[in-house]
Specification:
Keywords: DNA-binding, Transcription, Transcription regulation. Pfam families: Autoind_bind (PF03472). By secondary structure, this protein is mainly alpha-helical. The chain folds into two domains: 46 residues; 52 residues, no CATH class. Helices cover 46% and strands 10% of the residues. A two-stranded antiparallel ribbon has the order 1-2. The longest helix is centred in the first third of the chain and has 14 residues. The termini are far apart.
């Protein structure tokens, strides 16, 4: 399943049951009130049960995006080794944008 901006709830019915769509909406609602790292970890665990995926990274930030830091990376060791070996860390557009805006805390 590939999500784009144009992806709608109606499209989800092709992949998820009504119950699963409600679970996903509940997860989205919960995401709005996350304040602590353990809450985020719990939410990601619930999301992974609903929509299986191989790996992820996520972070926490404020509404005005003054602070953003990486909380966890769940990619396989093999993937991370390849990512570093190939130097992708130096050309990753997401990391580059975060560093450029000084949003990443060392």
């Amino acid at each position: 399943m590939y999500f784009t901006r144009e992806f709608s709830i109606k499209d989800l019915s092709k992949y998820l049951t009504k119950s699963e769509i409600l679970d996903l909406l509940h997860i989205c609602d919960q995401a709005l009130s996350i304040r602590e790292e353990d809450e985020l970890r719990k939410l990601i665990t619930e999301l992974k049960k609903l929509i299986p995926f191989d790996g992820f990274s996520y972070g926490l930030g404020t509404k005005n995006r003054d602070v953003l830091y990486f909380v966890d990376v769940d990619y396989s060791l093999e993937y991370l080794e390849r990512y570093l070996e190939k130097g992708y860390i130096h050309i990753d557009p997401i990391l580059d944008a975060l560093v450029e805006e000084r949003k990443v805390i060392n």
